[in-house]
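Feature request, filed as a ticket because there's no other form

It would be nice if the structure record came with a short human-readable summary line next to the tokens. Right now we just get the raw output. Example of a typical job, pasted below so the devs can see what we mean:
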Amino acid sequence: MYQNYWFAALIALGGFSSSAFSQPPPAAGPAAPESIDPLFNPDPKTLLEGAPEFPIIDLTPADRLRGNQSFQNFIGFMGNPTQNIDPRAVTAFWPVFDTVHTSALPALPSATAQVYGAGVTVALSDRLAFGMNQGGYAQIVLSRNQPGLFPNLQGVLQNRRQYAGLREGWLNLGGFVQYTLIADAERQFLLTAGMRWVAPSGASQLFQGQPPWGLAPYVTVGKEIGLFHVLATTGFSFPAGSAPVNSDFFYLNLHLDRQCFGWFYPLIEFNSTYHTTSASLNLPTRFGFINTDTFSTSGNAVAMAVGANAVLVRNKVELGAVYSTLIASQHGFSANGLLVKMVFRY
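Raw output as currently delivered:
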């Protein structure tokens, strides 16, 4: 019976097709209003009546890259970019120039260094971010007029004069991934946890490139108090494998700034390192011997940085500079530096 129905339907369809081809097309007229079936074709207007309202969430890639925009009065850290990472998940690019002068060490004569580098942070959401914050090209001039004997790793006496002269090349690369655990926009409070890494990719001329990789879990907090902003970070750096001595150390860094005129931020920072074992200064090839603006060559140390940051375009472009000096170190080691940093935020 079903076959007869299908056969009749095919005959009807063929008859309709032949008649349609044999007759001219009818003149176009106004379209008939579409019937509204309350069950299968409801009126769109009736769907909105009494329906709950939901927020529209736009998760386009461009908006995710913008990250968290609820803390626009913060400027972030200025000095020591290898350890001090902005707790906000934002996309930014920052070129850096650093010049440092150090006194002599048992293993090295006094030195003047210039570092040209840049860092980048990419926000994957309003809480998750990753980036690169260590590396760059360095030129170091070690004095030729300061001879001195010291024992190397094998206990053999060497003269530090052999390291004198111009040394230049690429520094070890390093980066991070972090997640904002608390982002309280109402109270302007941030709590972020992350992991830093350092790859032994630098030039041996700069005492870099020695395995293994370095790791450093860290926590960073930020708080706005009126026109003041406080940032603090602490972490523990250790090698991911067998490494020379002086590789494990804690660090604790503090930043304080005040917003003036809506765009100018005077600031002060303190950066400190504490090694878990006695840090010998007679090892010129130890892990992380040269590290931009951390002065880790001096073993346990506290550095102070004073400077200012100017917001040229709100939450987009900033320019700042800090002058750093050691205020506590081992064996009277001294180091002074000037760091200039420009920030471009997405």
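Something like this underneath would help us a lot:
Helices lie at 2-22, 44-48, 61-66.
Confidence is low (pLDDT under 50) at residues 1-23, 44-58, 285-290.
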